[in-house]
Amino acid sequence: MQTIDNFNFKDKKALIRVDYNVPLDDHYQITDTNRIDATLPTIRKIITDGGSVVLMSHLGRPKGGSEEKFSLKHLVSYLSGKLNLPVKFADDCIGKAAVEMAAGLKPGEVLLLENLRFYKEEEKGDPEFAKKLAALGDIYVNDAFGTAHRAHASTAVIAKFFPNAKYFGYVMAEEVAQLKKVLTEAKHPFTAILGGAKVSGKIEIINHLMDKVDNLIIGGGMMFTFIKAMGGEVGASLVEEDLLELAKNTVEGAKIMGVNLYLPSDAIIADAFSNDANFKTCNAYDIPDPWMGLDIGPASCQKFDHVIQKSATILWNGPMGVFEMKKFEDGTRIIAESVAKATENGAYSLIGGGDSVAAIHKYRLEDKVSYVSTGGGAMLEFIEGKELPGVKAIED
Ligand code: AMP
Predict the structure, then answer these.
(1) Which terminus of the chain has fewer Cβ atoms in its 10 Å neighbourhood, N or C?
(2) What is the pLDDT at residue 394?
């Protein structure tokens, strides 16, 4: 893999695409610095080599044109403190000032450019815009895995201006290596645990994993489409009627492929979608109207835990229930604890996709699993088997 470790940046100017799309409060204070912190080793390696750094990122969803609340200048003091040097700021990502400031950088200096998405050309993948950005550095480094599934000017198109001078930063390299490890080198038994709201968001993942896993555990809202497809009564639970046939085919397909597909046998049902609702445990195949299933039940937790404990590789995406509500969080918490325990006993575990990452943080288990992918959409597309433009642009 072409990582920055393959290169000495002495007297070179590295143009690094980072993902500094961090949340800011009303006073423009950063409320979660993880994405910035993650990139520090990449920046430090380059300046320690004796190179200089130009950082470029997007922040939020500006409508096109500059907006104070999406300005990257709000990150300058935090970044300066972390790097222990005065980070310079160009209030436009292209144009005369950016060119002059980038050209004037001395070894060891860092320049942050203003939000790339103040130009519509960024998301359009405009080659002229990419060319203007490319003029700001000698070497291109992509360290923004979170946007690797987008073919934007700064994430993919720009790479063609650096045919022999493009590298993965450490964040990107680690994400790609961990995801490749789970998809191509998994030790068996390999168990995938899928949850979350809808089958429609997960069907491509299920299809892509089918010839890789030994066990497929399905929980979350999506389980009810499967249970109904198998002839169960699911009351007012979330069901995608148009996917019943597909769910049935998936169950049949799993049998043919020799994959053990585990659906919950019991559920926690509620008489309303609310933490104040009445709730009880019920057979997942016999839920009376107007009750709805909002979590997997204790027997299912026990069964799933048993499968997880026997696994050598575990991939988890999507919560088992509405874990944001206290009454319906047990399934997700118990499965998170089970994955942590299996990891302690030697299994490799990868957690990814927005809500399962939120869950693992909620139960403070992030250090007890092997890897937590921060990739969101990029991670999901990777496990769907899609080629990510940001990765391909470096590898080509
Ligand atoms: P996703 O983004 O598809 O991974 O879905 C995550 C969301 O699914 C979370 O906000 C959960 O509250 C929700 N969810 C999990 N289980 C259920 C359920 N049984 N019914 C409705 N929503 C659910």
Answers:
(1) C
(2) 96
Ligand 1 lined by 352 (C-beta under 6 Å): no
CA of 269 relative to ligand 1 center, distance in Å: 14
pTM, full prediction: 0.89
Separation CA 175–CA 311 (nearest Å)? 22
Structure tokens at 377: 């959409």
Of 200, 268, 328, 355, the one to substitute when testing ligand 1's pocket (max ligand atoms within 8 A of C-beta) is 355
Longest distance between any two alpha carbons in the chain, whole Å: 71
Q: Is the CB of 331 under 6 A from ligand 1?
A: no
Model pLDDT, residue 210 = 94
321 close to ligand 1 (CB < 6 Angstrom): yes
Terminal C-alpha separation, the chain: 11
pLDDT along the chain (396 residues), means of 10: 94 98 94 93 98 98 93 98 98 97 98 98 98 98 95 98 97 94 94 93 90 97 97 98 96 96 98 97 98 98 98 96 97 98 98 87 96 88 92 94
Residue nearest to atom 20 of ligand 1 (CA): 221
Paired strand residues for 192: 216, 315
For residue 236, what pLDDT is reported? 98
Cα separation, 194 vs 366, whole angstroms = 18
Domains of the chain by start residue, with CATH = 4-174 (3.40.50.1260), 186-376 (3.40.50.1260)
Kindly state if the Cβ of 221 falls inside 6 Å of ligand 1: yes
Atom nearest to 223 CA in ligand 1? 19
**104 CB-near residues (< 8 Å, 6+ apart):** none
Amino acid at 84: N
